[in-house]
Amino acid sequence: MFRNVEELVAIAEKEGIQISEVMIRQEMKIHDRSREEVIAQMERNLAVMEKAVHRGIHEEVKSLSGLTGGDGKKLYEYIQSNDTLAGPLMLDAVAKAMATNEVNAAMGTICATPTAGSAGVAPGVLFALKDKLNPTREQMVRFLFTSGAFGFVVANNASISGAAGGCQAEVGSATGMAAAAAVEMAGGTPQQSAEAMAIALKNMLGLVCDPVAGLVEVPCVKRNAAGASGAIVSADLALAGIKSRIPCDEVIDAMYRIGQSMPSALRETAEGGLAATPTGRKYQEKIFGKSAKV
Fold first, then answer.
1. Is the per-residue pLDDT at 291 higher than 80?
2. Domain residue ranges in the chain
3. Are 72 and 55 in contact (CB under 8 A)?
């Protein structure tokens, strides 16, 4: 069992195994399930993600509110026919992250990683890297276990809830989880995964949760886009040997303390931030009526 990132990395290094393997073994122990059962469950999660990505970039997915939909597909098509500024890999991850979150907003089936509001980041990064690194199905499943290991630490030592800690706890955590998993898939060390997590999360510190009209749509979809791009950059920084001056566990603790000090208006109540802008209020009235309160 590991309680924090330091212990997670120490176990992996001592036993000469990947972080994903540490998580697989922990899942077997906690839930008293066989290795085959644990992996089969994660394979089902992977299949759900794959279907959501495919739907979001190939179909006209629209939310019931009309606030979101179609942007993942639009960006995916833009990549195919333009010499983009950010480059195909980065934007592919962004398109697939947005597409997944748009499927969520349209009440489609997604896999929370770690939450529904941040469900696009990990699959966005994973399925973009699939085309570059050509991983086996097992390696893709391991990507999710590595993500889960870092998410496990955050959930047990801080928060993954926007209502409790702002969007830094949701998209911020997802960004760090995806960055850490990308490092492992690219052949990095357990410590480099921890560095990637720290770098990614600390660049999301203070991110508020201010959903327009109280819906997980605006600005959530585009924050997943930012998370996916940030995860890839953070992974590359760590793979280059760049370290976070602040250890990963301390970054996670800082995120928790920042979340605790955030005013309630900035923690998923739709009372502040973008939700409180004139346009944000107009959308709320249009969707729910003038007398409605989120």
1. no
2. 5-288
3. no
Contacts 24+ apart (CB under 8 A), 111-114: 111/45, 111/48, 111/49, 111/52, 113/49, 113/144, 113/147, 113/151, 113/174, 113/177, 114/151, 114/154, 114/155, 114/160, 114/170, 114/173, 114/174, 114/177
User: Contact 266/272 with Cβ under 8 angstroms?
Assistant: yes
Structure tokens at 277: 């802008």
Tell me the longest C-alpha to C-alpha distance in the chain.
Answer: 60
Kindly report the three-state secondary structure assignment for every residue of 7-39. Answer: HHHHHHHHHCCCHHHHHHHHHHHHHCCCHHHHH
Output the six-digit token pair for 35: 């290795």
How many Å apart are CA 137 and CA 49, to the nearest integer? 13
Partner residues linked to 209 by β-bridges: 267
pLDDT in tens, 229-239: 999 999 999 99
Task: List phi, psi (to 5°) of 46.
Answer: -60, -40
- Least Cα distance to 104 among 120, 91, 92 occurs for 120
- Residue 288 token pair: 């729910």
* Bond from prior residue into 278 cis (ω within 30 degrees of 0): no
The full DSSP string for 103-115 is: HHHTT-----SS-
pTM over 0.90: yes
Identify the CATH number of the domain defined by range 5-288.
1.10.4100
Q: Is 209 helix (H, G, I), strand (E, B) or coil?
A: strand
